[in-house]
Design brief:
single chain, alpha+beta
């Protein structure tokens, strides 16, 4: 059965530093789709973050590349299997050089925290109670 995938393409200032950051979070780099201009970060079977050097990223768009430390161009939200896993991933990110983004959101049935990665891209990590999702 076909599973649709998402590839999030993000411009980065320092490809090696970004690869180190994401591997410290527990993700892997797929060498088949990585080189000196890009790194394929495998987040799950259906989610891949493509980290692209800014000059390489510029070959895919005619638009100005946003400075994510100054403007918001995207909010990437990842689900987590528990509240504890939310905290675990965000705490790893902060220990690896990320900065906190916004306040912790705790609505009982939904819990989330966010961080900005080394280039300022915002990653939200969210847990939702499966019983609340099913209605």
């Amino acid at each position: 059965m076909y599973q649709q995938m998402i590839f999030v393409n993000l411009p980065v200032n320092d490809l090696d530093a970004s690869k180190k950051f994401f591997t410290e979070l527990g993700y892997t780099i797929n060498p088949q789709f990585s080189d000196e201009k890009a790194a394929s970060v495998v987040i799950s079977d259906t989610i891949v973050a493509m980290l692209l050097t800014k000059p390489f990223y510029a070959t895919f768009t005619k638009k100005e590349i946003a400075d994510a430390t100054q403007t918001s161009e995207v909010l990437v939200a990842l689900s987590a299997e528990s509240r504890e896993k939310v905290d675990e991933l965000v705490d790893k990110a902060l220990a690896s050089g990320a900065t906190p983004s916004g306040e912790t959101q705790d609505h009982g049935f939904m819990y989330g925290r966010a961080f900005d990665d080394l280039d300022g891209h915002t990653w939200e990590v969210v847990w939702m109670d499966p019983a609340a999702v099913q209605g």
